[in-house]
Design goal:
Layout lengths: L1 H35 L2 H4 L13 H11 L6 E8 L6 H17 L12 E2 L5 E8 L6 H14 L7 E5 L1 H13 L3 H19 L6 H25 L5 H30 L5 H28 L7 H32 L22 H11 L1 H16 L20 H12 L8 E6 L3 H9 L4 E10 L2 E8 L6 H13 L4 E3 L1 H35 L3 H24 L13 H29 L4 H28 L7 H33 L36
């Protein structure tokens, strides 16, 4: 009777648990749905969202938002004719600017802005500063587009609207593309790869649908974080969150489904097979997601607002993917049963189809025969690729940050040619109102300053607009900005050029702080999972080498092939965090399986080769999916996103097909039991009271759950 009751209870549990999990997810999505729909309302791409929190330029932008009229919108209308402007051209320009001034209010000494002709007579520029849009991004965009609709060329006269306001509008169009287009492209790429990997008309839909649900949940959680803690939500951070949900989530699904398929061959009931699969790969998936989450949370130590905001949102994406793949995915797979694998259904008691020789078996054999040779060759190759970092272009200038140059950028290029020795972009100084006159005098006396003019006053501050003698973002203008900062007491110096200086300095500072935090955090997680010191150090050293090689490949491609004039100052830090956190994932999958085989009694070399043979296909599939999702960023319109997506995608592929398969395996074979030092597995069986002996017997196919 007792056995019968136990069997009945077990059957009820098998039926009830998956349905209960499904019901909980439906309730969870019902709660998160209203919040997910509001995420777009709190997403902003303001200047302050991408600046260092403590920098001078950030303080200037914040004070300008509080001045009468709010944040300033700076524009430059550029009239240009190659052979020289005619009198009729100047009349057209004056008439259009007068029409614009009749519709909008501008800050200046005259009602109608005055034009500044170039020395060669080919160009006439009209600097405009307006507080009309304030801090509202939609009003700013409408204002810029209205100015552009009035200022138009004719009969060979070209007219372009540039300036920081127009640049922000053009950048906003690119960030808008990070919503729907990025999501659709990511889904399409993942779907295609899953179809190729699973070769099933049904199975690929399950992890893809679960990833989509996880993405929806992450949007709701991200909105909640914004409301509770004021977390920055930008187009960049929300786009990366989506990529992490689909990339990392699909990785976890691939590992779980592979283990589940394996267990279905030795366990009759799908529920029991799934329980065994979760027990087998669950710790690896948890540790994997833990390294990514902890690595991303280390970005909270960054001073750069965009980096610090990306940390929590990226963590939300990874954790939502983890929860979905360890609860919702198993429930759906169990309810669908074995038929979800059709036409390659894993029958109970069957053996996997034996192929002549798998790629990873061949890789393992070569690594096993000459482990030191393979290790040395791989290390030399990675080192050689890392030398490409010496070819990385310098920090990207504002006008070079777009892949396809919008009107604001071409306007800046025209100005740079027509006014080579003239500042065309104002430097914004915010001085205490009580000492504004002294500050104005000191500014005009500063070497490199062409002119300075007082603007608005409010909230205890006075705005001063400064024009440098040198071109924007030139060495001369940089010297002038630094001189102003050193010579003005109690004032802040900002503006577009000052922002670029602060971005470069802050990224250098953030790198020195965040990189050690990431390394230590990831290392501690690996030590706890693998109960070893050598294996974690090996994995961390491997991902650092991959990061250097991927950046080196970027140095060989960005300038010579893609024609990029610079690299984003944050590329090194962000690519390091993502590659270390995500790259360690595959090391965890491999080493955790190697540890399982060692505990089951396999010899060190055999355990390493078996782990590669059994997990190599999963790691390769996961690596391809993750690389493809980040490669989607290379189709975006901003140089910083293209560079970040390229480096991470290349790094993941290097990590998947070179480092994990060859170098980590060959190092494990060469080190033998020492790879587990100082843990119990590092000792020979029977040594020291037998701590190195297997703690569990080797697994054999058995009829589990048949009663």
């Amino acid at each position: 009777m007792g056995a019968g009751k136990t069997s009945t209870t077990s059957k009820r549990r098998r039926r009830a648990v998956p349905w209960a999990v499904l019901g909980l997810w439906i309730a969870l999505l019902a709660l998160a749905g209203p919040f997910a729909m509001k995420l777009a309302d709190v997403q902003h791409d303001r200047v302050t969202d991408y600046l260092p929190a403590s920098a001078d330029s950030t303080q200037v932008a914040k004070v300008q938002e509080r001045l009468p009229g709010g944040e300033s919108t700076e524009l430059v209308i550029v009239y240009h004719r190659e052979g020289g402007l005619s009198a009729a051209d100047r009349e057209v320009a004056a008439g259009q600017v007068e029409e614009i001034a009749g519709k909008h209010e501008f800050v200046g000494r005259t009602d109608v802005p005055e034009g500044v002709p170039s020395d060669d007579g080919t160009t006439l520029m009209y600097p405009l500063v307006s507080n009309e849009p304030g801090t509202d991004e939609e009003l700013r965009d409408a204002f810029v587009e209205d100015v552009r609709s009035i200022a138009h060329g004719q009969d060979g006269l070209s007219v372009e609207v540039g300036g920081t306001g127009a640049l922000a509008t053009d950048a906003g169009k690119v960030y808008d593309s990070l919503g729907g287009p990025l999501l659709y492209t990511t889904v399409a790429v993942v779907a295609l790869l899953l179809i190729l990997i699973y070769r099933s008309p049904v199975l690929w839909l399950v992890p893809l649908a679960v990833a989509g649900i996880a993405d929806y949940l992450s949007m709701g959680v991200a909105y909640g974080l914004n409301q509770a803690f004021g977390t920055t939500v930008s187009g960049q951070s929300s786009g990366v969150m989506t990529i992490l949900v689909f990339g990392a989530g699909t990785d976890y699904a691939l590992l779980l489904v592979s283990r589940y398929r394996e267990e279905l061959r030795r366990i009759e009931r799908p529920y029991d097979a799934m329980v065994a699969a979760l027990r087998g790969c669950g710790p690896a998936v948890l540790a994997s997601s833990g390294t990514v989450a902890v690595g991303l949370l280390c970005l909270l130590a960054a001073d750069l607002n965009s980096s610090r905001g990306m940390g929590p949102l990226g963590t939300v994406g990874v954790l939502c993917a983890l929860i979905a793949m360890l609860t919702l995915l198993p429930a759906i797979l169990v309810l669908l049963g074995r038929r979800v694998f059709w036409p390659l259904v894993p029958a109970f008691g069957s053996e996997p189809k034996q192929r002549r020789r798998s790629l990873f078996a061949a890789m393992g054999s070569s690594a096993g025969r000459r482990p030191l040779t393979v290790l040395a060759t791989g290390a030399v190759l990675l080192g050689a690729l890392a030398l490409g970092t010496l070819n990385l272009p310098g920090p990207v200038k504002q006008e070079d940050s777009f892949v396809d140059r919008p009107e604001a950028v071409t306007a800046m290029e025209t100005l740079a040619k027509a006014y080579p020795q003239h500042g065309t972009q104002p430097i914004d100084v915010i001085a205490p109102a009580g000492s504004a006159d002294r500050a104005l005098t000191a500014i005009r006396d500063t070497r490199g300053v062409e002119s300075a003019e007082k603007g608005r006053t409010g909230d205890g501050w006075t705005e001063i607009s400064v024009i440098a003698r040198d071109a924007p973002q030139s060495a001369g203008e940089t010297t002038t900005i630094k001189a102003l900062r050193e010579g003005l007491e109690g004032a802040y110096v900002g503006g577009a050029s000052a922002q670029q200086i602060d971005l470069e300095d802050t990224n250098s500072r953030d790198t020195k702080i965040v990189v050690p935090l990431v390394l230590v955090s990831v290392l501690l997680i690996l030590i706890g999972l693998l109960r070893s010191l050598v294996a974690p150090l090996l994995l961390v050293a491997a991902v650092v080498a991959v990061w250097g090689a991927a950046l080196g490949i970027g140095g060989l491609v960005f300038g010579p092939v893609l024609g990029f004039e610079g690299t984003d100052p944050g590329l090194g830090l962000l690519s390091f965090v993502f590659l270390v956190a995500l790259g360690v994932d595959y090391g965890i999958f491999l080493m955790h399986r190697m540890r399982e085989e060692s505990l089951a009694g396999a010899e060190p070399a055999a355990a390493a080769l078996t782990a590669l043979r059994t997990t190599g296909g999963v790691i390769a599939s996961a690596g391809l999916v993750l690389a493809a999702t980040f490669a989607v960023l290379t189709n975006m319109g901003l140089v910083q996103l293209v560079e970040l997506g390229f480096v991470i995608a290349v790094g993941v592929l290097l990590d998947t097909f070179l480092v994990r398969t060859y170098l980590v395996t060959s190092a494990s074979v060469a080190l033998r039991r020492k790879v587990w030092w100082p843990g119990a597995l590092s000792r020979e069986p029977g040594e020291g009271g037998g701590p190195g002996e297997p703690t569990e017997p080797p697994r054999q196919p058995e009829r589990v759950g048949a009663s």
